[in-house]
Design brief:
- This protein has about 475 residues and is an all-alpha fold.
- The chain has 2 domains: about 220 residues, Up-down Bundle (Growth Hormone, Chain: A), CATH 1.20.1250; about 230 residues, Up-down Bundle (Growth Hormone, Chain: A).
- Helices cover about 85% and strands about 0% of the residues.
- It has 20 helices and no strands.
- The longest helix is centred in the first third of the chain and has 35 residues.
- The N terminus is likely disordered.
């Protein structure tokens, strides 16, 4: 009886969703400006604040990086914020209210964190590293932890919104556009930042530096908050399929975190995909920490040249993400797209080693464009697959879990990249072999990712999730 009711409910939902308007390209690009704003903010926190602390205020790099990294360490909260957006509407909407409130908080907290940076710098300059200085450093870490919480409260419901408003046949296009805009935001943020602080010299007085950077941290966060409102205003009410897809849409009070986690863990597919994302992301970003030193030590490139390496990677990534949803996924499917992306990244890892033996910077730059392109293909394929691997009733919870996997991976990738390089230096006398150990490990990680990806079965996931949701509902009725 319950199975028939479930089937009828799903049929009714699909029929109802057919009458809802479908996303057009303009709306997809409009949604993308939220991600563009996140790209601009990442430049402020990971770029400007990091540079100011280390170069101008002479804060040790380990303390600066440790404080900023706190925004990643609060990643487990993504699951809770995702579940909250599933269960507790704000302003009558499941996702948009969280996006707006989170945006207001993280843009404000970025400015407040900067003020703590100035206090830390003043304390170090006046008295060196005393208990007061360490207290300010701890306060800065706490500010970045709060920043990370606010970012999670906004970005996780936003990703869940993308699930709610899209269908399987247009989801890959939405992913390509929205995540391409993230790269665009980083570029725009760099242009705006350089324009606002270009008048500063290398030895500018701290007071002048403080005034200019404060101004930057008022203007860009204000723009980002405005972009978040423009990107999402009216979208959920017009396009969301949540109410028609969810069997518990009218029973929000019954979707507790505990029950959402039961649905999350009901299928072995959840664990498989979680570890695929974890392994794939670690392998994909492992070269981040060693790429510029590789160019300098092995290719004898100048600092200005190694800095430009990120631009070659960024161009390739933008092209890869931007084209995959329109050209590759419709032909190969999401799972095969991600698989071929893994293979391509593994091949590029081997090419990095080969280029090291040749020693020509131009070859390294060309490989970086190709690596970025294939990384974009892999990213777009994996993200499209990620949005499919959600249950409508607990979409936010699932998105939070996938975000947690990616956050853990970004933290581990830098540590592993540097650690493997150090081990390589002990084992090999030639620098190219030491760096090659990192790239070889990256390739092995991609092959392991393919093994995990081959076990992903979307239909099995959906069947298990539907049964788990029905079990929760029946338990409530009992």
């Amino acid at each position: 009886m319950e199975t028939n009711q479930l089937s009828e409910s799903q049929t009714d939902s699909s029929n109802t969703s057919l009458v809802l308007p479908r996303l057009n390209l303009f709306t997809m690009f409009r949604l993308g400006i939220f991600q563009m704003g996140l790209g601009m903010m990442s430049l402020l926190t990971l770029g400007v604040i990091n540079r100011v602390m280390i170069d101008e205020l002479k804060v040790p790099a380990s303390i600066a990086a440790g404080a900023i990294a706190m925004y990643q360490f609060v990643a487990p909260a993504r699951v809770w914020f995702g579940q909250m957006s599933d269960a507790k509407p704000i302003f009558g909407m499941h996702r948009t209210g969280y996006v707006w409130i989170g945006s207001a908080l993280f843009t404000t907290l970025a400015f407040l964190a900067l003020q703590v940076v100035w206090q830390l710098g003043a304390s170090v300059e006046a008295n060196g590293w005393t208990s007061d200085s360490y207290t300010w450093a701890a306060g800065l870490a706490a500010m970045f932890a709060l920043y990370g919480l606010a970012l999670s409260a906004s970005s996780t419901p936003f990703a869940a919104l993308l699930v709610d408003i899209s269908d399987e046949d247009n989801r890959s296009k939405l992913v390509s556009i929205v995540w391409s805009m993230l790269m665009v935001g980083i570029i725009i943020g760099a242009i705006i930042s350089s324009g606002l602080i270009k008048q500063l010299g290398l030895d500018a007085p701290i007071a002048q530096l403080q005034a200019s950077i404060n101004r930057l941290f008022i203007i860009i966060p204000s723009i980002v908050f405005s972009l978040g409102i423009v990107a999402t205003y009216g979208i959920e009410k017009k396009y969301s399929r949540y109410a028609t897809r969810s069997m518990v849409a009218d029973r929000e009070d019954k979707i507790t975190l505990g029950r959402a986690l039961k649905v999350l863990t009901a299928s072995r597919q959840t664990a498989i995909f979680f570890f695929f994302l974890l392994t794939m992301s670690i392998s994909l970003f492992m070269q981040d920490a060693i790429l510029e030193p590789y160019g300098g030590e092995v290719f004898q490139m100048e600092i200005s040249q190694t800095t430009s390496l990120n631009a070659f990677f960024g161009i390739g990534t933008l092209l890869g993400i931007g084209s995959t949803g329109f050209l590759i996924v419709p032909r190969l499917g999401k799972q095969k797209t991600a698989k071929y992306g893994c293979i391509g990244v593994a091949v590029c890892s081997g090419l990095f080693i080969f280029a090291g033996f040749i020693g020509q910077p131009e070859m390294l730059m060309g490989i970086l464009v190709l690596f970025g392109l294939l990384s974009g293909v892999l990213t777009a394929g994996a993200l499209s697959l990620m949005l499919d691997l959600t249950a409508a009733e607990t979409a936010g919870t699932f998105i939070g879990a996938w975000g947690l996997a990616q956050a853990i991976a970004r933290g581990l990738s830098t540590v592993l990249g540097g650690g493997i390089l150090d081990i390589g230096r002990i084992m090999f006398a030639e620098p190219v072999l030491a760096y090659g150990a990192v790239f070889a490990t990256q390739a092995v990680g991609m092959i392991l990712s393919i093994t995990l990806l081959n076990q992903v079965n979307i239909q099995e996931f959906r069947d298990n999730a539907a049964r788990a949701i029905m079990t929760v509902i029946e338990g409530e009725l009992d």
